[in-house]
From TrEMBL:
Domain of life per record: Bacteria
Lineage: Bacteria, Pseudomonadati, Pseudomonadota, Alphaproteobacteria, Hyphomicrobiales
Span of the signal peptide: none
Name under which the protein is recorded: GtrA family protein
UniProt entry keywords in alphabetical sequence: Membrane, Transmembrane, Transmembrane helix
Parts of the chain that traverse the membrane: 135-152, 188-221, 233-255, 261-282, 294-312, 352-370, 382-415
């Protein structure tokens, strides 16, 4: 339903509607003063991405992904992709040239890049909704999609992290695949987007695998209608994977497998999977009968399994299986977006409604559709992605970003159905049901319910104290005194690592990144050990400043872990004689200069 409408006129109207919604969000952020540019809200990834872009513009090599100012001397290699750095750097460079100001150019990039991504994501959401539920689903998709994306926060000014790019590309891959039967080469572009989102980060591997599996199974079930789609998708996927590999991976690292970033491991799997699917769909002996199609795809699956098991067995283990137990206990287990649904049910049940309600409603809608019969290829694609994303979200709450987005497609079709009924009926009951359907489908409504429930559970306890005081050290102005000091190495908690780099010229040991094992462990050794242990580390690594944020949750975790440790002593006012307090005590950050520091 709706595929016949996907012409140039609908394409333009969907683009304009998405633009209007994106401009509305932009105007609201402008009215609020783009506050996220000076208050990152504790999002280290956005700040470190800004640092990475600055380093690229300052001349750091395209293939050189070292973060030299974090970790032990020499830094460590980040696992992020230059595919995200490049467009942000291009916008910042162009804006700097036009305005004559590098800081203003950076601000333009931090505002414009997320806004462009919101526009494109809304556009592809509208296209997916049109293919799934007809033209009547477009406006609801724009409205509930814009509301959901806005309150998720990944398109806020300053949102330079790659999750918004991944969501846009994944939604694009889905939308193009939904309309592939009616649009020539749409499947080729869908494969291209699937390969790109995988290249940006491994978080989308479950969704890319789901899309590829759906393409293969649809080809098995309907070879006449899906053969060209499977062939084009496979070619696009394999071709772009090869292009990304040679343009983003240094030739000297072509033989090095990385499990957390696009490398030879991901390239080989993508090339075999994409080219194999295209070959099976193109060769008559492999696609001539149901048995042959099943056998050919099974052989391809076995070949992929053997390749991974033999060549890249390390990538079969859990993502953080080799992480140091101390880092797991004191860092990973406290990452907000890494919590599971079951953990939230115990620790923060009110938040469950905000993150899981609309995807669950959408899954119920698809289950009811399956029960009534009339199942379509669109239903298979949307349901598969929705269920997988919900499962990922149950494992880690960060996955709900995708399940909330995928839920927009069936929810918008649901709204469209009730809008059509309301237009032909003057019944009050139909009008009330339409209103209820709208409310249930809008994610911020559930966010409000969660907030109200949270207040009720806390029995009126104040949610925040201190007003404008930056107790958790998340605002740019908080780091001004540190930025005014001569550049040196700063000993601080991992939550402050990225702000230190973004707001000053200093370097820091700790930062919340799983590859920075040595730097994070060194900071833990210093803060959890005695003052003498800390002094030995400070002298050995030429630390010039110790920075403490008493109100940050990580500080509280470490002081509970070692109540007699160096960090806990500083909070009690026990300052060793080799440290000299800087400025007045009582601010968000307490600074201590190392006496006679080299």
């Amino acid at each position: 339903m709706g595929t016949a409408e996907n012409g140039a006129a609908t394409w333009k109207s969907d683009l304009v509607l998405a633009l209007l919604a994106a401009l509305l969000g932009f105007a609201f952020n402008a009215w609020a003063g783009f506050g996220q540019l000076t208050d990152a809200g504790g999002d280290n990834d956005n700040l470190l991405r800004l640092v990475e872009v600055r380093d690229l513009l300052a001349g750091q090599g395209w293939f050189d992904l070292h973060q030299y100012r974090m970790g032990l001397e020499g830094g460590f290699v980040m696992h992020w992709s230059r595919l995200v750095d490049a467009p942000i750097a291009a916008i910042a460079l162009a804006a700097s040239a036009l305005t004559g100001s590098r800081p203003l150019g950076e601000d333009v990039a931090q505002v414009l890049w997320p806004a462009l991504l919101l526009w494109s994501t809304l556009f592809f959401t509208a296209r997916a909704a049109r293919s799934f539920g007809g033209g009547g689903a477009v406006l609801p998709a724009i409205l509930i999609g814009a509301a959901g994306y806005y309150f998720i926060g990944i398109y806020d000014p300053g949102a330079l992290d790659h999750h918004n790019v991944q969501l846009m590309l994944t939604m694009a891959s889905l939308a193009l695949l939904l309309e592939a039967p009616a649009r020539h080469r749409a499947a080729l572009w869908s494969g291209l987007c699937a390969a790109l989102t995988l290249a940006v980060g491994m978080e989308t591997a479950p969704y890319v695998a789901t899309i590829g599996l759906c393409v293969a199974l649809l080809f098995v079930a309907d070879p006449n209608g899906e053969r060209a789609i499977a062939r084009d998708f496979g070619l696009g996927f394999a071709g772009v994977a090869a292009l990304v590999f040679v343009t983003t991976v240094s030739p000297s690292a072509w033989g090095v497998a990385q499990c957390d970033a696009f490398s030879v491991a991901q390239f080989v799997v993508a090339a075999i999977a994409g080219a194999g699917l295209a070959a099976i769909a193109s060769v008559e002996p492999a696609a001539g009968s149901l048995r042959r199609r099943l056998a050919s795809l099974a052989a391809l699956g076995v070949a992929l399994g053997v390749v991974v098991a033999v060549l890249f067995p390390q990538c079969l283990s859990a993502p953080y299986a080799s992480l140091d137990p101390r880092l797991k206990e004191l860092w990973l287990d406290h990452i907000d977006e890494a919590q599971s649904l079951f953990t939230l049910l115990v620790r923060d049940p009110a938040r469950v409604a905000a993150r899981y309600a609309t995807p669950l409603v959408a899954i119920i809608l698809m289950a009811l559709r399956l029960r009534r019969g009339g199942w379509r290829r669109q239903d298979s694609l949307v349901t598969a992605l929705l269920v997988v994303a919900f499962a990922v979200g149950a494992w880690q709450v960060r996955g709900t970003t995708f399940s909330i987005a995928f839920a927009v497609v069936p929810l918008s079709a649901w709204i469209a159905k009730w809008r059509a009924r309301a237009e032909t009926s003057s019944s009050l009951g139909v009008a009330l049901r339409l209103a209820a359907v709208w409310l249930v489908s809008i994610n911020p409504v559930w966010t409000g319910v969660a907030a109200a429930a949270s207040v009720a559970l806390e029995k009126g306890k104040a949610v925040a104290e201190g007003g404008a005081v930056d107790k958790t050290c998340e605002k740019k102005v908080t780091f001004a005194p540190l930025g005014a000091m001569a550049d040196t190495t700063v000993l601080t908690i991992s939550n402050l690592g990225a702000p230190v780099l973004a707001y000053s010229g200093h370097r820091a040991f700790a930062g919340p990144y799983h590859r920075n094992v040595a730097g994070n462990l060194l900071a833990l050794d210093a803060f959890l050990g005695s003052a003498d242990d800390a002094r030995a580390i400070v002298e050995a690594h030429r630390v010039g400043v110790v920075a403490v944020c008493p109100g940050n949750v990580e500080t509280l975790i470490l002081t509970r872990k070692a109540p007699q440790g160096f960090l806990a002593g500083l909070l009690r006012g026990s300052v060793p004689d080799w440290l000299e307090p800087v400025g007045e005590k009582g601010g968000p950050i307490e600074l201590y200069r190392v006496r006679q520091a080299g």
